């Protein structure tokens, strides 16, 4: 996403981290320089890091005082498990209406994908155990989009916040579909027999 500020265009999720470099937008809005990036919210599987800046005006400053970027974009080992499931299971030792439950994640909630909804194992009981999942939790199981501060943020296959870049049919990020190999029967000789795309 790009925003406009007094006719200048800048990226909301700018990855610049220099504390000494002050952009024109910083000076015009009476902002201090951006601070250092925080530790990543996750060690693998894609997380979020933030940077803060301070308003130097006695009034208010235009713009944001916080910015985010993705981090730790390496796959987690299989034994790490699902990040949302880890957050649900953290409540297993907390009584709910006087009873302990083993909590399982409820994913892909179209109304609020960034709340922590969990289901008690072996029951139909579904409870919102937290209004927000931890930063870096995927909004949906089949998406790179992630929750940050309780809001679902778009993440492209390039692992950049705000990016809409997608994988092509061959599984190549920002590809044009030209790298797939076809295997199978010739459809001209055998109509109705599907082709298989080998990635």
Largest sheet: 3 strands, antiparallel
Strand fraction equals 15-25%
Output the structural class. mainly beta
* Percent in helix: under 10%
Q: Low-confidence segments, ≥5 residues, pLDDT <50?
A: 1-22, 24-28
Question: How many H/I helical runs?
Answer: 2
Radius of gyration using CA atoms only:
22 Å
Placed side by side, the strands forming the largest sheet appear as 5-6-7
- Indicate the mean pLDDT: 83
In N-to-C order, the SSE pattern is EEHEEHEEEEEEE
Give the number of DSSP strands.
11
- Oligomerization: single chain
Terminus-to-terminus distance: 31 Å
- Total discrete domains: 3
| Shape type | flat
Disulfide bonds: 40-71, 44-76, 55-61
InterPro entries: ADAMTS/ADAMTS-like, ADAMTS_ADAMTS-like, ADAMTS_CR_3, TSP1_rpt, TSP1_rpt_sf
Subcellular location: Secreted
Protein name: ADAMTS/ADAMTS-like cysteine-rich domain-containing protein
Write the layout of secondary structure elements.
Elements: E1 2-5, E2 8-11, H1 24-28, E3 47-52, E4 66-71, H2 83-89, E5 103-105, E6 116-120, E7 126-130, E8 146-148, E9 151-153, E10 181-183, E11 196-198
